[in-house]
Amino acid sequence: MMKTHSAFRLIRQTPIASLGIEVAEFEHLQTGSMHYHIASDNEENVFMVAFRTMPMDSTGVAHILEHTALCGSERYPVRDPFFMMTRRSLNTFMNAFTSSDWTAYPFASQNKKDFNNLLDVYLDAAFFSRLDPLDFAQEGHRLEFAEAENPESALEYKGVVFNEMKGAMSSPVSTLWQTLTKYLFPTATYHYNSGGDPACIPDLSYEELLAFYKRHYHPTNAVFMTFGNIDPYEHQEKMHEQALKRFDRLDDKLEVTDEKRYFAPIIVEEAYACNEDDLQNQTHLVMGWLLGSSINLYDSLKANLLSKVLLDHSASPLRHALETCGLGQSPSPLCGLEDSNREISFMCGLEGSNPEQAAAFEQLVLDTLQKLADQGVDQDQVDAALHQLELSQREIGGDGYPYGLQLGLGLLSSAIHRGDPIALLDLDPVLERLREDVKDSQFIPGLINKLLLNNPHRVRLTLRPDAKLAERREQAEKDTLAEIKAGLTDEQKASLVAQAKALQERQDQIDDADILPKVTLQDVPADMKEVVGIAHQQPVRVTSYDRGTNGIVYQQVVLPLPELNQEQLSLLPYYVGSVAELGVGQKDYMEMQARQAQVSGGLSVYTSLRANINDPSQLGAYLVISGKALARNHQALDELMLDTFQHVRFDEHQRIRELIAQRSSRKRQSVTGSGHSLAMLASAAVFSPGARLAHINSGLEGIRFIQQLDKKLADEGQMQELTGTFAALHQRFAEQARQVVLVAEGERLEECIARLSPQWHVAGDVQSGHWQPQLADVARLQAWKVNTQVNFCAKAYPTVHSGHADAPILTVLGEYLRNGFLHRVIREQGGAYGGGAGHDAGNGVFRFYSYRDPRNLATLADFDRAIDWVLSSPIDQAKLEEAVLGVVSSLDKPGSPAGEAIQTFHNLLHGRTQEQRKLFRQRVLETTAADLRRVTETYLQIDKASAAVVTHEQGQKQLLEAGFSAFSL
Length: 969
Known about the structure:
The chain is an alpha+beta fold. The chain is 45% helix and 20% strand. Helix 19 crosses helix 25 and helix 27 (807-829) crosses helix 29 (877-892). The relative contact order is 0.10.
């Protein structure tokens, strides 16, 4: 039995053998808050406190509160404890999330002292936040004159969340989701935009924020999640003593009730802002159904199984119908199941369509479902879907979020809605039940009838483009502000000027950082964790890694890329993106997609390109074929990979056309979410072949290229030419020597190696020759016009390769600039959602960036001011130490067992040995103030900079006047 604090009672304790963990459920006696602890032999401990937050409007109150709660608390009365702690910590994760019906505050750390420091700050921020009105004005929204001290200048809305949501709602997919849920949920909290609609955010008052906090951020309304090897008693002692004992249980029970049901399907049409010149093929068509409760595990897994059977891959019947119907460009990003809300919703749709296709689209979906209900589904497809559920249950993650946080977030919705979170971790009994269920050939047809065909709570949404909508919204905002200004008294104008001044002073004030706990350089582990592989030659060259993968085998086949010309390099991403999606031998792509689902977690093909460690002008380049499978299926996985590589067919022209169209659509939709990354790639492309290739292949130039390619492929001659290039590329790759990477538990590795096909062996050098691709020049100043309401700015400088002694120092400089200058100037004062700087050592480029930024030229000027700040101000030793801690924390961040092994292999493949990485880390730890000033002076010379901005039409006009070159997507 786990030791339990006297303020808590242990409800139950359940071992989950399949994951090697034990889960305990506790209740705090005084307040009724729930604590779920996942005990694991894992040094990366995770904490999360979540609150039920269920707004009934679109003012963004829960989202703005999430931001404002982290701006100072009772024990830590500094204005920015969250961002200050990111610099005084060895955390592996720190953040906060606002979902549709909960708000969560999670963090993770491998250092126990650091974990407890963060726990102190998080508990105080959550339960005893100061919620200063000026923080609300900064993070949420405020009225301010364009010239803050001049009441005769124009009035503007400002605020971090206001600008963040302007950026978020520039995405058509975000608009699509918010619009669909508005109709799927006519009365529940999901009807509203929990992040905040920019048109509604200014309606939120400070008093409403306080009232929401008092009602929702109470322990009775809280769920705690912890993970790792720290005893839950220790967590509970802190939770009780530092927060919970000061509260009593509330009678007010916050919950989401079941949605009122429609008695007949509804059809709706709305518009989204689109600045494309041609509005043809820009419409989104979606159908959505409201299903049952998400907290009934059996019902939830039945819905998941049905979704996988219908939509999981291109051989799934509904996805196949959507991909091949000709009514749109590709299946909608919304295809699938949303099971994190109180009730599950199922969606399918098309993007790249037109409004007049809506009825035909709906009929296609209903006819497809009716045919499946009448004729049944192939049993192999059902078994494959169950196999995918089992694989996802077993996989140990940790490469994106910490593994413990992934588990906690997976449990959170059930806990928020008072379900059984622990049952979600032990799916084996329910999967067994489903295996028995599906033996009945009418089981899946019965689900289709019950959940979809005979379910009247259905919405058909047409979201059409409107070229004037953004302009009308902008004009409406200007008119509202002009009307407000016209009605201001002199006293009110003076008050706004005074608020702007007070906020400026608050942002400029230097807080006593010693109020906050911290770790120091003495707390940094002396050594880096090392993952060691074993090389085998028999006859296939194999590197194996013994890792705790919970019964899953990971396999990669790696071969060097030959020299390619510019045309081949431009088409390389589309070749690699097609290989695992096409037919093989006598089987078409649908049969191969089904085979993949039956025996594996899917195949992927990608390129691994990195600059030489001592010369960023030379690239090492490899092709990688990657797959994973349950251990019992490893031989089938190996055969699948070999067949795919040896016999892939490029004669499926329509399939390739669909894949290119889908990729084009996804790339275009990604801009508003990753505009800062795209701007950084564009700005860095001036200086480095690796960065230029990234810009051409996966950056803005790549997006423009694939849009043009997509249009060209309507011509069969162009398609013949493309597939000929693909086949020629493939033939060249087939001639290259290969090596294999295997990751599995030690007791399985010998058998896995023995199962490998000897046909993988090809004599020759498995190391890439370092080559210098000949690529076209890139403009030094680029202004890219896209469909957005905000800006993403970047500025870049040429520096040194990762093996140079100054590379670690430049990495520290990025953290120092972000912490000491850019966060305050770009985010707090400029109103951008984020901003910072960093060194891309692989390509020898230093980059500044901003994210969802209301400004452009002013932000670029602030990047220059940041350099002046370093050169003209004394280096703050405490901030330098914080920057070093931040870099070391990033270098030491753990991944999944398999991910760490594969990363180690690829590091070695590209010359990043453990010794070199240790030296880099040691130089980070030894960075001095003199070093920072020296590298700034040496490399960040303003006349050598390049810049790129992803912007809107008006922003591009401003940038053109400043000498930028114009580009458009």
